[in-house]
Amino acid sequence: MTRTQETALPRHHAWNAVQNLPDGPLDLVGDIHGELPTLDTLLGHLGYTPSGTHPQGRRLVFLGDLIDRGPDSPGVVRRVADMVERGRAFALMGNHDLNAILRLPKKENTWLFDHGPVSETETKVANDRDREEILGFLARLPVALRRDDLRLVHACWDDAALKLLEGETGATQAFSRHKERIKATLGANADPIARNLALQNGNPMKLVTSGPEVRAPQPFFAGGKERHEARHPWWNDCAAGPMVVFGHYWRIPVTGIQKDDGLFRGVPLNRTLGHGHAMCIDYSVGGRWHDRKEGRLHGPFTGRLAALRWPERTLVFDNGEQATLDQPGRDA
Fold first, then answer.
1. What is the pTM of this model?
2. pLDDT category, 254, cuts 50, 70, 90?
3. Phi-psi domain of 167 (left: phi exceeds 0; alpha: psi -120 through 50; beta: other)
4. pLDDT for the residue numbered 56
């Protein structure tokens, strides 16, 4: 394990939950989860230099969850922050990024907060200066980006939730304010499951970064504990409009990691969702830590990192494979 010794991260300014994207061709990158070498490989396939320039003037958009699980979360944040500062990229806040700025100790973020042993795989650890610079950058990330032909979010596009975030001056303040608002409406003897669902679905910061949940038909085990709330495929009800592109939900099962949903069982990797108005581009690169734990230190890995080229509607994977988006109702 090494501690980063780089120059300071760029500083950013006022927080706006929803921001506008400029016109022009984009490459939308799914959850990275600290996999810096994989990101570099993908950027090479896309034609970018390490600093984020592209000969055709394309720009990158990172859909959140830059950190945790992978070998170099500090390096990923530093790379993305530099591109954003130079106007070559945009980035969104994911649920892992939100957990970090809330300073919530999780088993995946010991690299950042030093509250327990770092994961079994090789991991770069943030020093004190890194920590505050990383948190400062993550805290400035919006939760949604939009333009006439695109709606981008980490986990769930919900117009009502985004409306609630208008006028908020900070992500952590917004999270805390809505959490307290919800708690004030819950009785002391509220059903624990109903309470959890209210805190998840009623807090706009939670909803857009980790998605809606419902009461599970029966308890199940995932992430090492019994769960009573299951993820809900909100995209099946996605209204017509600009394409919604998001990450968060693993589209490729990773053997040995229990997942609760089976939301994409039988769905081709290039298939759009709902009625063709939504697309998830998280292909489970966040599961590579488990492959390494099982001894597959350099592959073959189960999960992939992907980018969606827009407006071309072409997926590009870190192994160089490409696929055009396929609409529901068409042959795969």
1. 0.92
2. confident
3. left
4. 97
